[in-house]
Design goal:
With 248 residues, the chain is of the alpha/beta class. It starts with 13 loop residues before the first strand and ends with a helix. It has an eight-stranded parallel beta barrel, surrounded by seven helices. The protein has helices spanning 21-24, 37-46, 56-62, 95-100, 117-133, 155-168, 181-191, 206-218, 228-231, 236-247, and strands spanning 14-18, 51-54, 72-75, 103-112, 138-144, 172-175, 195-199, 223-226. The protein contains ten helices and eight strands. The structure holds 1,6-di-O-phosphono-beta-D-fructofuranose (FBP). 1,6-di-O-phosphono-beta-D-fructofuranose binds next to helix 1.
Length: 248
């Protein structure tokens, strides 16, 4: 492997804390505590998670001081949820700026089945080329969504997405879980040497969340890239601790 992907892993497994929701969903996801990026950086720091995922603006203003050593993944594209058109997530940051900000990994969202997916495939491929020249691993959020997608959790599309991650050079793909562990195991085979991570989704009952995390890990996933189920919790440190015991 040409990239330093191992920096974001512990024995081949990982838990990344996603906190790019301020752009994707707006402040409706936040309360008085977690609206403050410092609160979420604290969770990643104290729970010793494998990394935190943020947009470049948050990285620039908060990944410093006592938080400077938290492994950083900078998202290179993103969109808000105000304009409802065919899903397309424009670039918000270059690979070189992400590296200047201290990124150990970069992330990019690709909406599979969008009428604009060809633009994202092209941009994503350029990101992979530039990032790998600098030995920086790339995580692809691959979410079926748009004109050609009736069901975002359609197994055929999810397995296709996992394979596209491998074909285009992603080091990890972050995908939604549709609830069938045998099929998830097949997805890990489709992804080959690209590691498959589970995205969390909206906050739900904590027991259910832990059960799902266990299920995907037993099915061969390499870890979790989750946000709301951790930092929206009243007890984020204890949630993070349990997730660590499940993943590692
Ligand atoms: P969650 O664990 O909170 O779902 O975070 C994962 C994530 O992919 C974030 O990185 C992103 O902001 C959000 O979900 C996008 O969710 P969607 O596009 O499905 O609304």
């Amino acid at each position: 492997m040409h990239t330093k992907v191992s920096n974001l892993l512990t024995n081949g497994k990982t838990i990344l804390l996603a906190y790019d929701h301020g752009l994707e969903h707006g402040p409706k996801d936040f309360n008085l505590k977690n609206v403050d990026p410092e609160h979420v950086f604290n969770i990643a720091l104290e729970a010793e998670l494998n990394g935190i995922i943020v947009q470049p603006g948050v990285a620039e203003k908060y990944h410093k001081g006592r938080y400077a050593d938290i492994p950083l993944v900078v998202k290179l594209n993103g969109k808000d949820s105000i304009v409802e058109e065919e899903p397309y997530s424009p670039k918000t940051c270059s690979v070189s700026r992400a590296i200047e900000l201290g990124a150990e990994g970069v992330g990019y969202t690709l909406y599979l089945g969008s009428g604009r997916e060809h633009e994202m495939i092209k941009e994503f491929s350029e990101v992979v080329e530039k990032a790998h020249q600098q030995r920086v691993p790339v995580i692809a959020w691959i979410y079926p969504r748009g004109e050609y997608v009736e069901n975002e959790l359609n197994p055929d599309l999810l397995e296709y997405g996992a394979r596209i991650g491998l074909e285009l050079g992603a080091d990890m793909v972050k995908m939604k879980y549709h609830g069938d562990k045998d099929h998830l195991n097949w997805m890990t085979k489709c992804a080959g040497r690209t590691k498959l991570l589970m995205a969390g989704g909206e906050k739900r009952g904590i027991k259910d969340f832990f059960r799902t995390a266990r299920e995907v890990m037993n099915a061969g996933a390499s870890g979790l890239a989750v946000g709301r189920n951790v930092w929206q919790s009243e007890k984020p440190f204890s949630v993070a601790k349990t997730l660590k015991s499940i993943v590692f």
